[in-house]
Amino acid sequence: MVIRNSILTGALLSLTLATTTHLHAATVPAGVKLAEKQEIIRGGGSEPATLDPQKIEGTPGSLRARDLFEGLYNLNGDGDLIPGVAKSYTANDDNTIYTFNLRDNAKWSNGDKVTAHDFVYGFQRAVDPATASPYAWFIEIPSITNASDIIAGKKPASSLGVKALDDYTFEVTLERPVPYFVKMTAHQTMFPAPKKVIEKFGSDWIKPGNIVSNGAYKMDEWVVNEKMVFTRNTHYWNDAETIINKVTILPIESPAVELTRFQAGEMDVSYELPNDRFKQLKRDIPDEVIITPYLGTYYYQFNTTKAPYDDVRVRKALSYAIDRDVITKFVTGVGEIPAYSFTPEIVNGFNPATPDYATWTQAERIKKAQQLMTEAGYGKNNPLKFNLLYNTNENHKKIAIAIAAMWKKNLGVEVKLENQEWKTYLENKKAQNFEVARAGWIGDYNEASTMLDLLTSSHGNNDGKYSNPKYDALLNKAKTMQDPSANYNQAEAIAIQQDMAVAPIYQYVNKRLVKSYVGGYQPNPEDNIYTRDMYIIAH
Amino acid sequence: MIVFIIKRFLAAIPTLLILITVSFFLMRLAPGNPFSSDHSIPAEVLANINAKYHLDEPILTQYFYYLGGLLQGDLGPSFRYKDFSINELMAQSFPVSAEIGIWSFLVALLIGVGCGVIAALKQNSGIDHAVMAFANLGMVLPNFVLAPLCILLFSIYLNWLPSGGWNDGAWPYLIMPVIAMSTSYIAQIARITRGSMIETMHANFIRTARAKGLPMSHIIFRHALRPALLPVVSYLGPVFVAIVTGSVIVDVYFSTGGIGQHFINGALNRDYSMVMGVTILIGTLTILFNAIVDILYAVIDPKIRY
User: Fold this and answer.
1) Closest partner residue to B162 among A257, A266, A460, by Cβ?
2) What per-residue confidence (pLDDT) applies to A1?
3) Would the CB atoms of B257 and A459 count as touching at under 8 Å?
């Protein structure tokens, strides 16, 4: 905590050099004997839509990109900055110009040097309309100069506020100070891009045979829906401290299928594990079941544009009547943490204050809920009726059934469950074509605004259309504050304690199977897992 | 016969065109689009993506644009796998499904017909009951049950076979997908063969052959099998197409990288061109194999001439 604050503050206090001796690499404790064969098979979730760093969306793509590429900085398990291609950085007085000093021994897998020009090109192509990246907005968030105008086609990509002062000095200019900018450089959208290769092969540059990468690994094989095979990039600047020689990533969407691979000894680290097998696995192989907090919240969203969900009493009553302990203990049951705030506790640099209703007993909450419902004009003779929308999925269904039963029992509310296939569900939510809907959000970066921004009135994912000018103002101001915690706490208090914009249900966890002979696996809230940190113990 | 074949293939063109047109517009009717996601994309960014894939143009223009590409053998870019064209993905996945399919088809045909014939010849005996019990079991055991059962037995308990993967079709990777894929077809084929064989064995010409004292093997292989296989052949046309165009269950459980998974994922992700590509492939193969079945009919059944 102290370290992470010092780095964040360092970024703000201008001209502070951020350096650390800690590097990303496999560190094998003394006495551990390594296996002769250093090869690993990892579950990779679904097949990513692309491996082009500037176009990747979704965690399966990021997982692979972290092995193949490296940006200016990386994040460790606590969310702290670890130097990547950059050795250090400085910021000007008002924190709008960041200058990164790059190491001169960073190389692409074809032996070419990684230079500041590769970062300039990478940042520019992320916003260039010709690239059509779904993550172009990621460059807009820290307000890099002209990013918005370039995306809108008003200015050329070359006008982006990025510059190569020389081969190893990269400068980024922001339109306003953004305290968490340096942390964002760990995201693949801000990775360098090999201009020569991309110009030579076009969109085929990412395929085996063409691709060059600057991370610890290079790609040897990519068979869609079967596997990806990476081997050591011997040109990687820290190759000497990398241990695993070969990584095979299997694109398996079903946790049940992954489990069979794991049990058959054909997978070392899974992507997920099936909820319904958790208890059995925990009993049979307790050391190989790894459950850790994940930066995200599962919640129910109210459509505040529709009566009676525009009535805070109804929203509060519905939220209070949910027994989160029952949900996390008996319905999900994999170690999820009951959520009463919107921001998960695990978030870096901010501890959300406990809202008042979290301190009440469930009986007190129910009593209050019943009272609010009566005040809002609902009761036995006039029960509230609505559809609860969720995307088709067994776990969402179980949760919906349990919560609908809680509402029915305690408030007499009559709920009809409505499941829709993913894209239909998204479309209906976007069009405010729902009353109450299941939702979930995983943070894009480890800072509270990645969650709280979601409830600002102009946010594209604020499907419930919650709007409170005070909330918007607090978050807007927080963007340039040295320590925004106070604003975040006030924002939480307004959105949840006061307005109950959404009903938080639980904080996500990462649930994974890891063979006991895999060393160096470092779980973290953002699930930034690097194969280069791992090693195989003799077994 | 040649005129018949030419006619059949000419008739296939409008059929395919109707199939393409209907699928194209039906696909666009589905809510959502290839780029809708839970992370809302800013309007300008979405506009850039839509422009890149011509999704900003009127739907009729998109349709003719697609047809134009199709005439040149281009099935378009994948909306889901942004680095690949549908041609590339199909070239990678269809051979996988076809290989599993052809093996499954051969296994289903040989074992199915064999079992059916034996059951028919030993009608109402213990063998007949055993074969039919197996056939019924195969029919009620869907492949989404069979696939994990196979993995449990052969990979986890016995450790004989790899639980998944393809590795260019190395035989250990082929066995379980073929079992999962062929079992229900073995059962179907055995049942059809048995019924038809029993009927044939009671026909007058077989009685005559027997009365003449012909050896049993001669009667079965020379006289009975050909007419008995007619209903099987008409069943095999569509089965062959279904079997070589893959199964999402097999692809998902064994991570073979076949075309079945592409079809389902294509629909779920609104990968319009992928769905179109697989539909056209299945359509074309269906028309082709129905024609082949008709031709085979003429070869097997002397009463039929075109």
Assistant:
1) A266
2) 30
3) no
Nearest alpha carbon to residue B256 among B104, B112, B33, B69: B104
pLDDT of A24 reads 59
- A430 interface with B at CB cutoff 8 Å: yes
- In one letter, which amino acid is A482? Q
Nearest to B32 among A50, A57, A424 (CB): A424
Tell me if B38 and A461 make a contact (CB, 8 A cut-off): yes
- Token couple for A10: 């360092």
Environment class of A25 (CB within 10 Å of its CB; exposed 0-12, middle 13-18, buried 19+): middle
Mutate to test the interface with B, among A57, A204, A205, A224 (most CBs of B within 10 A): A224
Give helix A312-320 / helix A394-411 axis angle, nearest 10°.
Answer: 110
The pLDDT of residue A17: 37
Q: What is the DSSP letter of A113?
A: B
Q: Three-state DSSP class for A433? A: coil
Which residues of A, range 217-256, sit inside 8 Å of B by Cβ?
A: 223-227, 250-254, 256
Which tokens is A503 given? 């009903």
Q: With the C-alpha atoms ordered A92, A94, A97, A101, is the resulting torsion angle positive or negative? A: positive
Number of A:B CB contacts under 8 A?
140
* CB contact (8 A) between residue B252 and residue A254: yes
Rg (CA), chain B: 24
Collect the ranges in chain B with pLDDT lower than 70. 305-306
Distance from CA of B260 to the nearest CA of A (A): 11
Q: What is the structure's pLDDT at B193?
A: 92
Point out the residue among B42, B80, B156 whose CB comes nearest to the CB of A460: B42
- Residue B306 confidence (pLDDT): 65
Instruction: Report mean pLDDT in 10-residue bins for chain A, 539 residues.
Output: 32 35 70 94 92 90 95 83 94 92 96 97 93 86 92 92 96 90 92 96 92 96 94 95 96 92 96 92 95 94 95 97 96 93 89 91 96 93 94 92 96 94 89 95 86 90 94 90 88 96 96 96 88 94
Give me the domains of chain A, ranges plus CATH numbers.
Answer: 15-29+50-206 (3.90.76.10), 292-510 (3.10.105.10)
CA distance A126 to chain B (A): 11
The residue in chain B having the minimum alpha-carbon distance to the alpha carbon of residue A205 is B83
CA distance A315 to A295: 25
Q: What is the pLDDT of residue B97?
A: 93
ipTM at complex level: 0.86
**A218 in Cβ contact with A69 (< 8 Å):** no
Per the CB < 8 A criterion, the answer to whether B46 and B54 are in contact is: no
Q: Does A422 sit within 8 Å of B45, measured CB to CB?
A: no
Contacting residues for A171 by C-beta, under 8 A, at least 6 apart: A97, A98, A99, A100, A162, A163, A164, A165
Please tell me if residue A203 touches chain B, with a CB cutoff of 8 Å: yes
